[in-house]
Design a protein that fits this description.
- By secondary structure, this protein is an alpha/beta fold.
- It is built from 9 helices and 9 strands.
- The strands form 2 sheets. A 7-stranded parallel β-sheet has the order 3-2-1-4-5-6-9, with helices on both faces.
- β1, α1 and β2 form a beta-alpha-beta unit.
- The longest helix is centred in the middle third of the chain and has 29 residues.
- The radius of gyration is 18 Å and the shape is globular.
- It starts with 5 loop residues before the first strand and ends with a helix.
- The relative contact order is 0.13.
Length: 259
């Protein structure tokens, strides 16, 4: 890894992505950041510029050619050491009344959360392999471990990202490229704050960013947090569907009522 490292972060205009940008800026990293909201992205770039060199690019990761051109240009200027694929749709925007999620909504969520990560990671992999080093960090979700009745497409997008990350890790490991899959629970972000339900074991975005950066530094395969939610989700392996499904439906109903 170069010193200071070149860190590319998608979805850096808010939430976890913003916290990661500020964290790596404080470490003096070279930053390449993207987001769809140009005003918020510029604000993050200004906040980071006091401590680091920053290149901010407005980007919709669902545009495959644009994403490939962005990562290729950033890597050509200075080899990217760490790619953090963080851009995504979540919170209230990913929730629906059970049975009423439209095909267009599902397409948009999956295109952003799953294909958006692929659009940025896949074009960078050959260069990282040629160098024999590099770190790819995919920001998934604990929701990818089980299907949520009020967020089918969101659950599917994160489950798909989980499988993609596992496969990449096994594929790229011998080349020296590490792949870390991050599975957060509830994190205090504008996206998370839009949810109508309680957010147990809530982490700050700053705490999440520290955990993610540590996992990337160590080349961890999976970073799942918070542990109480991880342990609770482990029950899905032992509870029969006849028990688990009604429980999740009841939780979904309570969330819609704002209970």
């Amino acid at each position: 890894m170069s010193d200071p490292p070149h860190v590319a972060i998608t979805g850096a205009s808010s939430g976890i992505g913003r916290a990661l940008a500020l964290l790596y800026a404080a470490r003096g990293a070279h930053l390449s950041i993207t987001g769809r909201d140009e005003e918020r992205l510029s604000a993050v770039a200004r906040a980071c510029a006091n401590a680091a060199s920053v290149t901010a690019t407005r980007l919709d990761v669902t545009d495959g050619p644009a994403a490939a051109a962005w990562i290729a240009a950033r890597d050509a200027e200075r080899p990217v050491d760490i790619l953090i694929a963080n851009a995504g749709i979540g919170g209230a925007a990913a929730m629906s009344v059970p049975g009423e999620e439209t095909a267009e909504t599902a397409r948009r969520i999956i295109a952003t959360n799953l294909l958006g990560a692929v659009h940025c990671a896949a074009p960078l992999i050959p260069a990282m392999q040629a160098r024999g080093r590099g770190r790819i960090v995919l920001i998934g979700s604990l929701a990818g471990l089980t299907g949520l009745p009020d967020a089918p497409a969101y659950s599917a997008s994160k489950a798909g990202l989980h499988a993609y990350g596992e496969a990449l890790r096994r594929c790229l490991g011998p080349s020296g490229v590490t792949v870390t899959l991050v599975l957060p629970g509830f994190v205090e972000t504008p996206m998370s704050a839009s949810l109508p339900n309680a957010r147990p074991f809530l982490w700050t975005a700053e705490r999440a960013a520290l955990r993610i950066a540590r996992a990337a530094d160590r080349g961890e395969a999976v970073a799942a947090f918070p542990l109480p939610l991880v342990w609770l989700l482990g029950l899905r392996h032992v509870l029969p569907a006849a028990w688990l499904d009604p429980a999740l439906r009841a939780l979904s109903a309570r969330a819609r009522r704002g209970a």
